[in-house]
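Lecture 7, part 2: worked example. A protein chain together with iron/sulfur cluster.
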Amino acid sequence: MTPADAPASRLGAPADTAAPRLAPASRLHARASANYATLRAQALDLLRSAAEQHAGHVVLASSLGVEDMVLTDMIRRHGLDIAVATLDTGALHAETLELLQRAQRHYDMSIEVWRPPQQAVVEFVGRHGSDAMYRSVELRHACCALRKLEPLGRMLDARSAWITGLRREQSAQRGGLQARQQGSDGRVKFSPLVDWSLGDVWQYVADFAVPYNTLHDRFYPSIGCAPCTRAVTLGEDQRAGRWWWERDGEKECGLHVERNPAAGAASRDPLASETGASA
Ligand code: SF4
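Predicted complex, written out as structure tokens:
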């Protein structure tokens, strides 16, 4: 064995230098905008308004992504009367499920978990297979409708308002997002981080030691279901790892596509208030 072949530990270097080292996402991305303090104050004001105007009927629909963890921290830190809920699609990463438990311990709180109807999922997989989402956009949308939209509808049923961690910067489709929008069903959607940059989000995480998904440390800026999420590489946009095999069309699951109550389903009219998703 030549020195070049020897394990790093035999050459006197620590054994783990053989593996690439990644900086924590909070160290890599934290970069406050000049108006960061103002953005934080505005976000908190909006959350307070939502809690007061919709007392007992407002929920943070959390994807457990980093933006939603920032909002969870604000809600708990300031004692706001806003429920926190998430969707367990049955296809989440182990890291996401671990964060769900860790966040509840960290904040000493219960996070509502909404799941799709088990029998319907079994039937869908039996009919179309577990890899249906890769075969056509229609099947992917059908899977999202079953695993996400259906339980989201139940989550929101008794609520007059919901909170999301959407930011304009996340994608071109989210460029028209407003901090407060009323849907055609009358429900109000608040997006307190609408003007935050990714750097602001991570600055907040660093400032307040907010728990986050360890996948973010492995270049997953946006995290959804395991089969439909991959890490991004340098130069790719923040949503590039979601449904990466779909080259055209909107990279959304329908959670934040304006619903058409008459049709009973998400409308994909591009003129509707397509505001993107934290999911
Ligand atoms: S993100 Fe993928 S696995 Fe999750 S509901 Fe949509 S298609 Fe199904």
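The pocket of iron/sulfur cluster is lined by residues 89, 91, 133, 140, 143-144, 147-148, 224-225, 227-228, 253 (CB under 6 Å). The chain has one domain: 23-266. Keep this in mind for problem set question 3.
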